[in-house]
Amino acid sequence: METKTIRLGGMALQNGVLVHGPTSWGCAVRDGAGTLHVASGRKPHLAPAVQQRMPILRGPVRLAEAFALLPVIRRALPEARFPFERPAVLGSIVASTVIVRTLRRSRLLSAGSRELAAGALTLLPAAMALRGPDLAAYHGAEHVSIGTYETGAPAPKEHPRCGSQLIAPLLVSSLAANVAAARVPAATRGIARLLGTTVAVGASVEVFGWMARNPDHPLARALARPGFELQSRLSTAEPSSDQLEVANAARDACLALEG
Description:
The chain is about 60% helix and about 10% strand. The protein is α+β, with helices and mostly antiparallel strands. It has a domain at about 1-85 and about 240-259. Strands 1-2-3-4 form a four-stranded antiparallel beta sheet. Helix 4 (about 110-120) packs across helix 7, helix 6 (about 135-150) packs across helix 10 (about 240-259) and helix 7 runs antiparallel to helix 8 (about 190-215). It is globular, with a radius of gyration of 19 Å.
């Protein structure tokens, strides 16, 4: 009997890999002494009714689930080191937030130009995180491990469902939402930006899902290209055998709970 392939996702850590499925997660890291540590558990599920019936809102809810999983992993696997824990990344988050706020108050640029620049600045923390030691290689290991499981053959370090594929639809939708929010009265602009960001994230997740279901559509290929180039040139590196062992341990721990 043919075994059903479970859809997996993942996240690269500074010293390992997180893999998650529909109901469970597995995480594996290697400490400074070279020892492999593995943990797994059930995923927190937020607002399942919203995820089933409200397409635009399920994207932000899934994002909230991902953040809710991080403290669970930290308790189960204290050796795990998340990308955003590095001081340089934390500093870039603070700096980009301050610069974006200042930029949006400026009148030297048009509303569209301000929002385009602000959108580019929000990518700064991610760019800083990718400069961390071993992170790109563990990102590649995550893709190789999951892709090999899905296809049954050695997979490349780029994966079509990587979160980088969200970049193009998210930038476009966020730009449109923030330009619209900039035109409302100042008293309600903060709420308008919050609503716009929620809708932009939700719409981007829906577009991302459509891209994954229709990979050969010309529009899907065009939207996926920026993310693929980012994976290929910057955010992934060929993993070592030790790093791939870590990724496979995380994947297998997750699959063991998924049954």
